[in-house]
Amino acid sequence: MSRLTERLPKVRGVYTPNAPMAELTWFRAGGPAEVLYRPADVEDLQDFLAGKPHDVPVTVVGVGSNLLVRDGGIGGVVIRLGAAFGKIAAEEGHRMRAGAAALDVGVARAAADAGIDGLAFLRGIPGTVGGGLRMNAGAYGGEFKDVLVEAIAVDGKGGLHRFAPADLGMTYRHTTAPADLIFVEALFQGRPGDPATIRAQMDEITAKREASQPVRTRTGGSTFKNPDPAVSGGRKAWQLIDAAGCRGLRRGDAMVSELHCNFLVNLSEAKANDIEALGEEVRARVGALTGVNLEWEIKRIGIA
Q1: Do residues 89 and 129 make contact, with C-beta atoms less than 8 angstroms apart?
Q2: How far apart are CA 59 and CA 255, in angstroms?
Q3: What is the DSSP letter of 258?
Q4: Would residue 297 show up in a list of annotated catalytic residues for this protein?
Q5: Class of domain 3-83
Q6: Above pLDDT 70, what percent of the chain?
Q7: Contact 66/221 with Cβ under 8 angstroms?
Q8: pTM of this prediction?
Q9: Annotation marks residue 222 as catalytic
Q10: Residues of the chain with CATH 3.90.78.10
């Protein structure tokens, strides 16, 4: 058992020493967290951050849909928000409020039920609201920045803050939000819509995803960001990867998906090192052939 727990403040949430992170990521790979902390609610999270030792690093994870935890695991405390942070509710003015642990697809479904249009694209993002805020996630023509009214976050000392989209510097798959911010809630703006029409849009997105992406495998979503069209000649990441002959490329049980080559998959027992090394090989091959430097979209954390 990690002795780190002896140095941490008392909380109403749960500390789990040496927690297996592979169980919490879609890749199903990677080492353990020194301590996993699941806060009971926002106030519990604030108390923890205000009371923890300054030298203890903190890492925040969602459902692990866009995450690769390295095989050496993660030192310090890993925070995973639970059910108290997963509430979703419709508000006046065709708005949806959602906790950071709420699944994007859950927000899309709740909006459809409430007759709120404009949020159907969230059906195509395999993650949580918190992760989407951190990286300005997007899919099928929509991004978080397009519909966000405000985000609420806790800073590294436990202070609570509200942010407008302009405060977060949201651009393609990026924000300028300080690293110590932990998002806890978001408010989204939609518009009036017909529930049946919105559900039909979501069904179309689902069908497209299942036909073109390896959604039922151990994967982590899109591996690399689409490069600047001016640099890539208008080609997306998958087109560059395909041109470099990487479709189906393997390293151990890690493979570039044959269905969509901007996805890496764990065929069975791939180590995180295999997955990351395969991604770096793809980047090297694309760079050598095209001169384009692909940037990771998958977040890689922990000790190699």
Answers
A1: no
A2: 27
A3: S
A4: yes
A5: alpha beta
A6: 99
A7: yes
A8: 0.93
A9: yes
A10: 218-301
- The label of the residue with tokens 């199903």 reads 28
Please report, as a single letter, which amino acid is at residue 20. P
pLDDT, one tens digit per residue, over 273-299 is 999 999 999 999 999 999 999 999 999
Catalytic member of 2, 65, 222, 257: 222
CATH, range 87-211: 3.30.465.10
185 is catalytic: no
Beta strand spans in 206-248 (E)? 218-219
Q: CATH 3.30.43.10 region(s) of the chain?
A: 3-83
Residue 170's Cβ-side half-sphere holds a number of Cα atoms within 13 Å equal to 23
Amino acid (1-letter code) at residue 46? Q
* CA atoms of 14 and 100, how far apart (whole Å): 18
b or e along 153-174 (b: 16 or more beta carbons within 10 Å of the residue's beta carbon)?
A: bbeeebeeeebebeebebeebe
Which tokens hold the place of 219? 């994967």
Q: Which two tokens stand for residue 238?
A: 């998958």
Read off the tokens for 95.
Answer: 């708005």
d(CA 108, CA 194): 13
Residue type, 229: P
**Which helix (DSSP H) or strand (DSSP E) does residue 51 occupy?**
helix 42-51
pLDDT, tens digit, 9 for 90 and up, residues 157-172: 999 999 999 999 999 9
Q: What is the H or E stretch that residue 200 is in?
A: helix 195-212
What is the radius of gyration, based on Cα positions, of the chain?
20
Please identify which of the residues 43, 150, 173, 247 carries the catalytic annotation.
173
| Terminal alpha carbon distance of the chain | 21
Four-residue CA torsion sign, 122, 124, 126, 132 = negative
Q: Which CATH architecture has domain 218-301?
A: Alpha-Beta Complex (3.90)
Take residue 260 and report the two structure tokens written for it: 């969509």
